[in-house]
């Protein structure tokens, strides 16, 4: 969302929130600076889109009229009681979990959303405590070239065009999910008229948006069932990894401890994986906490991935 659009929508929210009565369109048009200078048709289109975006964000815009003489004259407002959050109370364990959640994201654009969420919690009197359980925190990275655009398109419900396995696809992004270090996009493929699951790292070339935001509705869907196919794929390969003591608990739960000489401060594990669901992204996301020892090809792939990440960060 552009800065100008964000400012306009924020001003519209404040305008409707501060209103003591239902505001007609013309009053809103005069009060919100972002609507100044628009033609009648442009204002109508822009105002309708802005209302839909606010409602999609969960902002309760109420429609009605205060006029006894002209009851058909529609106005708009936001009731403060419906808009404001109720008092927030969390147990000690929940507060720790919220603190951990705030440390998970290390991709800059997504981290902005997390920072804002934590700021809101602190404003409500909740101080997320990440330090108390820092050793349990997972690490989610999002360095795939197409990730940021797909993330924004998923949030704004905008169609996307990209090439996947040599075939051009136009999809309606529904959900992005991380499964064992790899990002997957669940989307409706408009060219095949069917739901599809795409591994984001395998999107070829540059992804581009198609059309405008709020172009489709996301259906009710069982996400666990949708991603169950990934879990069902058998592990037919094994990696030997050295995990730093007290780190990467998610890997430790799936891996098998093995005997051998490990680097100081580390333990050896045998980790199952499949060729279809390669673990490169997951292993690289743990950084120096996890060293891949075998096989050599996987070790080299993780090293290449990390070098690519360093290059992205440097740029």
From TrEMBL:
WCX domain mapped to chain residues: 237-309
Name under which the protein is recorded: WYL domain-containing protein
Residue ranges of domain WYL in the record: 146-204
Domain of life: Bacteria
InterPro entries: CBASS_pafABC_assoc_protein (IPR051534), WCX_dom (IPR057727), WYL_dom (IPR026881)
